[in-house]
Amino acid sequence: MSPRLVRAGTDAVGRTETPLTITVDGEPLDGVAGQTIAGVLLASGRRSWREGPSGAPRGVFCGIGVCFDCLVTVNGARDVRACRRRAADGDTVTTQSRAEGEER
Amino acid sequence: MTRHVVIVGAGPAGLAAAAAALRAGARVTLIDAAEAPGGQYHRMLPEAFAAERPGLLHHGWDDFERLREHVLGHPRCAWWAESTVWSLERSEAGEDRPPRVHVLRGPADGDGRARHALAPDALVLAPGAHDRALPFPGWELPGVFTAGAAQALAKGERLAVGDDVVIAGSGPFLLPVAASLLEAGSRVREVLEANPYGTVLRGWGRRPWELAAQGGKAAELAEYGALLARHRVPYRMGRAVVEARGDGRVEEVVTARLRADWSAVPGTERTVPADAVCVSHGFIPQLELPVAAGCALRRVSAAESYVRVDGDLRTSVPGVHAAGEITGIAGAPAARAEGLLTGWIAGGGAADAPEARRLRARVERGARFAARLAAAHPIGGAWPGWLRSGTVVCRCEETSYGSLCAAAGDRAGGAARAVKLRTRAGLGPCQARICGPTVAELLARRAAGAPGRPAEGLAAATPHHRPLAQPIRLGELATPPVTTDSPPDERENAR
What we know:
Structural class of chain A: mainly beta
Structural class of chain B: alpha/beta
Helix content of chain B: 25-40%
Oligomer: heterodimer
Number of strands of chain A: 8
CATH architecture of chain A: Roll
Number of strands of chain B: 24
């Protein structure tokens, strides 16, 4: 299975959900206002979205902006730590890679 | 003119420092990269979640709420949320001022953040710490998280990192992480403390009455123990995750029994299916700002240093004060006590005030707690035995253990800097934040007794030297900063 959001209906903290949509490499992903971009990606079942120099998959490791494993491009700006940036409705996210010859 | 105190970090230490500096009569600018104060310990849910009962996820929430409202609502406090200190500019020689503080304000890693420069009368550094994660084969697989990541995602945005989770490493922090994951609906397979029972007992067991003084920590731990028992989660001591396996993601982990020195006992390996692993082998203080300010460090080992402070938490640099985990890993109650003392002193409060004397006693108790924590949960020297030649040590550059050993063994170029340049370990995007202490430790062992070891307290002796404390974009750098010598009456971010 995979990471998932605690369901709002059963969440003991009693929260409300405001839906939002971001696109990741052109594909729309639904999220909830307040989630980080990493949170939206993880909750939608994606564990990895970046590659190390060898092409090995990477996703979230430290979760607090220290390891830089989760970097993505947001609305054209490269190298944004997905674990620290709140998702905004309509954000255009493209994945990045450090693998050689793959400057995307 | 009213004294202006700039405080970097709004976790338990920084928030307490703000309250104390305000009490001493100073004006305060409180800076944090997050949208809300609390740090990692009281990481708040986003406002957009509109949570009715946010306190359910926290210890000491009511006290925190009161403190937060008092500080953020104070007329002499400017609260700078989503603000990143990217550089400290030291004052001229002979000039008795703390460094100028360069800040970027705006969404994390955004491309149009506003540049500000502050020239405070006193600077309090309270940036906190992050998990130390030792490498093991497969630790770079997606699904391996630091325990702090699992905690931040569960507490900060209600996300469970997996369904079947193994938590491993060392220290009491593993327990609240297990509690958060259970609360979020994960199945916690087991919690593994690498140190055997004897080590933990000897560390904590000495002078147990000192524990009682540490702000309810014992009761908190007992609560976690009861929770694990209720969910039938085994807590095993002297066992560790020594490998993670899977095709492109974690599918199973290998655990092994450890001796006191953390060498794995052959034949004790067990394979446990898991879709997430959370590891924490203690904490690394965030030292780039103190190092940038020129603060002398207290070196514990090649892998471990803290900011050197006097009894009133002054650093070696005039006007620069420190509080919280950067002076030693001691947890939130000790960080709060340090924050209160350092904020009072930085704010111009009298050093001989009765309040300061009481705080000094609390800070000393915190230091004793830190010593016991370190004694009970040390990192055993034989952990590199878990590594294979191909095991990734530097995650960014994928430097393997084998290539690091080969470079370190080279007589011509075995010095730390040469090894770094040759293997690129520590030169990737994270700038050695994750692998730095590990690489320093591995190299120090290889070079034990070699000449040229830098003197204690020298910035170059640490893997924490980062001229840019946080990334800044060229476009932002090209824009001149708004210089603010006294705190602006910006209150737009209050709350």
